[in-house]
Amino acid sequence: ASPQRKKELERKELERKREENIRRREEERRQKELQSQQKPRQDAGQEHEKRQQEARRQQEEERRQQEEKRRQQEEKRRQQAAERQHEEQERRREEEEERQREELRQQEEAMHQQEEEQRREEEQQREEERLQLEEKKKKEKQRR
Prior knowledge:
With about 140 residues, this protein is mainly α.
């Protein structure tokens, strides 16, 4: 090949390399541009995910607190029911004691009345015996 032809080929080769470099640099620039556009989207995606995780965490915490509140209310209801039952048992026990005291009082009163009645009867009997004895003595005297 002639020197002129050689120079022409070299010039074309240089031109081709220069254009390739330009294209390569342009492609790199476009890639960087694309990445810089995607980065905010990635960041936004990560932010969104973080916010969702936080929201889930808060919901879980609220659910746990409500469960705890419900458990405490249930425990309070159980305690109140136990207290009411205890009070009711106490009231019944006191009523039963009162009933027994009243029954005992009535029995004692009946016994007392019985004793009183018996004492009167015995007294009346002694009085009758005394009168009979007096009558007997009078008859004895009259016979003499």
